[in-house]
Amino acid sequence: MRASTPDTVIFDFDGVLLRGDAFGLFLRRTAFAGARLPLAVAALVLLAPIVTIPAFRPWAGRWVSRIGLLGRNADELRAELERFGAGLGAEPGRIIAPGLRMIRTHLAAGDRVIVVTACEHTLARAVLDAIGLARVELVASRIRGPRLIVHNHGATKMAQLAGQGVTPPWRVAYSDSLSDLPVLCAAEQPVLVNANARQVARARRLLGARLTTVTWLGGQAPEVRR
Length: 226
Hints:
This protein has helices at about 20-30, 35-50, 55-70, 75-90, 95-110, 120-130, 155-165, 180-185, 195-205, and strands at about 10, 110-120, 135-145, 145-150, 170-175, 185-195, 210-215, 225. The chain is of the alpha/beta class.
């Protein structure tokens, strides 16, 4: 990955390009299917009180994913994630059409587009390839066997980008989550996607007049508010 340039554009993945949580869907539909379901239920019951505390959610997420992936070797898991991602990319209504159109618009304008996500890398890459975005760069979470070794969430996204030589400022950043405020703050034009009034108010306090909000629903053209 080359260093950042003035035309760098950052996109979040879940909630901006893909409806729902891709890795969560993989765990529910595949990793916790069949005989693993009782184990999943027990884990969720035990971790439920912890998940209510925002600071501990990443830790709880790591343990849930580790339990779901336990017993799979790296090659089997990679193949499962690739198959699931390809299927997810083809699933009706799963891809957020205005988000996909916006990425294509930036690519057509010659912008450098980087998808930066907490989703697992193999899974996110398979989705991007399936929807025709094979040349879009990706910075994502990483697993090794059943272990989550890099959880690319919150401020970790900034560290991961810096590790790849991509440093702020970037021209535009799109996200649906306030956990991405470090990424949004580093953009000349931060764009908050499908946010509620409380999220907008909090982001506005930090970002001021730079903030743009958009509503991207189904196949409709994006509605832009300032």
